[in-house]
Amino acid sequence: MAAPNPFEKQTSIPGVKHIIAVSSGKGGVGKSTVATNLAMALGKKSKVGLLDADIYGPSIPRMLGTLGQKPGIDPETNQLIPITRYGIKLMSIGFLIEENAAVVWRGPMLFKAMDQFLRDVQWGELDYLVVDLPPGTGDIQLTLAQKVPVAGAVVVSTPQNVALLDVKKAVDMFQRLNVPLLGMIENMAYMINPANGEKMQLFPKGEIDSYAKAQGIAKLGEVPFNPSVGLACEAGIPIVEANSNGAEAQEFMRIADRIREVCP
User: Which CATH number belongs to the domain containing residue 166 in this structure?
Assistant: First the structure.
């Protein structure tokens, strides 16, 4: 007797055209910053939602200046009404618990939470639902792939090989889950010298480009390092909004356009 296919129960979210997963093999590469600014960039021309799927370490409420806000509940459907900021619909476990409260849940609770965030939130009509996944290759990633058809995954890395090692695991995971890879984003790829405008390498340049080429994975973009990107997120005004003409924001806009070409 054939084993049951765990992906047979995939069902689309009504009204949501494309689900884009943003992932990283390891923490500390700026994945949530990338997910937030990517959602903002896509939102300039499209209807966008942003789901913070990092149950243990939610950061979207702080990055988008919505700390302390609570989602409403539609009395007719009993669905959560997402917070809206800069025209982006947001949902995070951070809206439902105190910022300093630890989430101490086993796998089944994570599965249930993810299912509720996908099904019991009033997302409405969206061109893109960007899902900020936790680092690694665990329960949340598996749940997302099993529950809904994911249009594609974006993998975030920094330039050095120590980050690339974990990226390879994330790529392997998505390939095993039959999730299309839209491409890779190299974050903190370089820093622009304010004195002369030259590019400076902050990290040892690893083999990320040769790996992507060998795997046939598109390089969606290279986001430069700038302290203002982190400061903007701390202030709750992502860099795409805070400095739309800057090099970092413009790179996110180009990445968003590339994603629109693949997922129109």
Answer: 3.40.50.300
Q: Which helix (H) or strand (E) holds 247?
A: helix 247-262
Using a pLDDT cut of 70, give the percent of the chain over it: 93
* pLDDT score of 139 more than 50: yes
Residue 5 lies in a domain: no
Torsion angle (degrees, nearest 10) of CA 113, 56, 190, 161: -100
Strands of 69-196 (E only): list them.
72-73, 80-81, 83-85, 88-92, 126-132, 152-157, 181-192
For residue 229, is it within any domain? Answer: yes
Q: How many domains does the chain have?
A: 1
Higher pLDDT pick, 204 / 101: 204
pLDDT tier at 196, thresholds 50, 70, 90: confident
Question: Does some domain include residue 223?
Answer: yes
pLDDT at 133 over 60: yes
Full domain range(s) for residue 240: 18-262
The Cα 141–Cα 19 span in angstroms is 13
pLDDT at 174: 93
